Amino acid sequence: QVQLQESGPGLVKPSQTLSLICTVSGGSVSSGSYYWGWIRQPAGKGLEWIGRIYTSGSTNYNPSLKSRVTISVDTSKNQFSLKLRSVTAADTAMYYCARGIAADGMDVWGQGTTVTVSS
Amino acid sequence: QSVLTQPPSASGTPGQRVSISCSGSSSNIGSNYVYWYQQLPGTAPKLLIYRTNQRPSGVPDRFSGSKSGTSASLAISGLRSEDEADYYCATWDDSLSDLVFGGGTKLTAL
């Protein structure tokens, strides 16, 4: 059974880069017709799509974040990562990683990691 | 505000049938599959419905999804106290080239 686990700094200073890693266990990040995505949720608010990367390497990003976001895969470590540049307090949120299958939705989620942007 | 519109709250008594709506447009719900996610308090979202009306294995058949035009609905029959959660609809938006979520509906079992 595939499991996902987010990791990374819980506190990031304004204007710096938020970097998170999602470690995949019980399966391979490079197999199948999957995509690997990031979603965030400010405290008490709704879900916001950040972007995804397919096993082919192609990516889709939220247009409102596209200029600041990079999602990549490290097959040697069975991980995928999120980098969000030039962060502000508005980027403070719970960040989730998830696995998706084509048109079948995101069926496996990590437990989430809280990131606070503050000096 | 969200591209997809959901009522902020819904409620029902145990055993009752409850429906949650999700309103969009021709560029999203009108032309793409709809997904529903359940988020229990303090936990990560869970896929409840995919491809508009399909249930992943393990999801009770009390949950069902449907779509008509540019609106979608999640129905929960035989409401239980453990169904108390936030429910989010989601779909792809062709105009935005973006996966969009509804604002979420908090379901309360009275």
Question: What this model shows, in words?
Answer:
The complex is a heterodimer of chains A (119) and B (110). Chain A has no helices and 11 strands. In chain A, strands 2, 4, 5, 6, 9, 10 and 11 form a 7-stranded mixed β-sheet that branches. Chain A is globular. The mean pLDDT of chain B is 97. Chain B has no helices and 9 strands. Chain B has 110 residues and is an all-beta fold. In chain B, the strands form 2 sheets. In chain B, strands 1, 3, 4, 7, 8 and 9 form a 6-stranded mixed β-sheet that branches. Chain B has a 3-stranded antiparallel β-sheet with strand order 2-6-5, with no helix packed on it. Chain B is 0% helix and 45% strand. The chains are: A mainly beta (119), B mainly beta (110). At the A-B interface, strand 5 and strand 10 of A face strand 8 of B.
Blueprint of the fold:
The complex is a heterodimer of chains A (119) and B (110).
Chain A: E1 3-7, E2 11-12, E3 18-25, E4 34-41, E5 48-54, E6 59-61, E7 69-74, E8 79-84, E9 93-101, E10 106-109, E11 113-117
Parallel strand pairs in A: 2-11
Antiparallel strand pairs in A: 1-3, 3-8, 4-5, 4-9, 5-6, 7-8, 9-10, 9-11
Chain B: E1 9-12, E2 18-23, E3 34-39, E4 46-49, E5 63-68, E6 71-76, E7 85-93, E8 98-101, E9 105-109
Parallel strand pairs in B: 1-9
Antiparallel strand pairs in B: 2-6, 3-4, 3-7, 5-6, 7-8, 7-9
Can you give me a brief rundown of this structure?
The complex is a heterodimer of chains A (119) and B (110). Chain A has 119 residues and is an all-beta fold. Chain A has strands spanning 3-7, 11-12, 18-25, 34-41, 48-54, 59-61, 69-74, 79-84, 93-101, 106-109, 113-117.
